[in-house]
């Protein structure tokens, strides 16, 4: 699916993501881009190393779209939540979302994002990563139910969104706020500048 696609050229950028949050964040950099969702099956082993998992999925998305648009630069990204040696991906349903919030309650977890840029025409292949920490408030069942009633969480790693009613569940964070949302703008700006896509 293409989203407002501009004419493709050697400087065109495609975001390989279905996430509306990543679209909004990337738009803040002021670079024209289109969106094409990669038709791939992401790796989601809860026991995987989170750095390897997000790097693999980001590259998987970028490679799939780049193969179909060889002259365009393609940006792929993937974000996950990690606590106690377990990767918390998108919950499979409301019960799993509740369980994730209970697990995160009163604890500090890590948010990992992997970024990959690909352009087949000139062999461009580069990766980057970002890490942030989020500390949750202590949540009782009532607080969890209130949050779940206000925020759709099934499309979000860890079953939560810091920018949507985040004050109800988050006590604080360290590192990039945009990384916690799903696309670290500082890292993305640097990688796109290094690739000659941003001045």
Task: List the defining traits of the structure above.
199 residues; alpha+beta; Maf protein; eight-stranded mixed beta sheet; 6 helices
Can I get a quick summary?
With 199 residues, the chain is an alpha+beta fold.
Biggest sheet details = 8 strands, mixed
Q: What order do the helices and strands follow?
A: EEHEHEEHEEHEHH
Radius of gyration: 17 Å
Shape: elongated
* CATH fold naming: Maf protein
Helix content: 25-40%
The end-to-end span amounts to 28 Å
CATH-defined architecture: Alpha-Beta Complex
The residue ranges in which pLDDT falls below 50 over 5 or more consecutive positions are: 1-10
Beta-strand segment tally: 8
The SS-based structural class is alpha+beta
Number of helices: 6
Q: How many independent structural domains? A: 1
Q: Please report the first level of CATH classification, the CATH class.
A: Alpha Beta
Strand content: 25-35%
Query: What is the mean pLDDT?
Result: 93
């Amino acid at each position: 699916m293409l989203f407002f696609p501009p004419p493709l050229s050697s400087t065109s950028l495609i975001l390989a993501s279905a996430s509306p949050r990543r679209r909004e964040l990337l738009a803040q950099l002021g670079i024209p881009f289109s969106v094409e969702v990669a038709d791939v099956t992401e790796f989601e082993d809860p026991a995987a190393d989170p750095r390897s998992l997000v790097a693999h999925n980001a590259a998987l998305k970028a490679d799939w779209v780049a193969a179909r648009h060889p002259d365009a630069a393609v940006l792929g990204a993937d974000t996950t939540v990690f606590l106690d040696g377990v990767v918390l991906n998108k919950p499979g349903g409301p019960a799993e979302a509740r369980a994730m919030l209970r697990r995160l309650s009163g604890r500090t977890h890590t948010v990992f994002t992997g970024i990959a840029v690909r352009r087949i025409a000139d062999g461009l292949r580069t990766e980057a990563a970002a890490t942030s920490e989020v500390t949750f408030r202590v949540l009782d069942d009532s607080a969890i139910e209130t949050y779940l009633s206000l925020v759709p969480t099934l499309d979000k790693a860890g079953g939560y969104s810091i920018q949507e009613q985040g004050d109800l569940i988050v006590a604080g964070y360290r590192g990039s706020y945009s990384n916690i949302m799903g696309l670290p703008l500082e890292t993305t700006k640097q990688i796109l500048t290094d690739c000659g896509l941003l001045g």
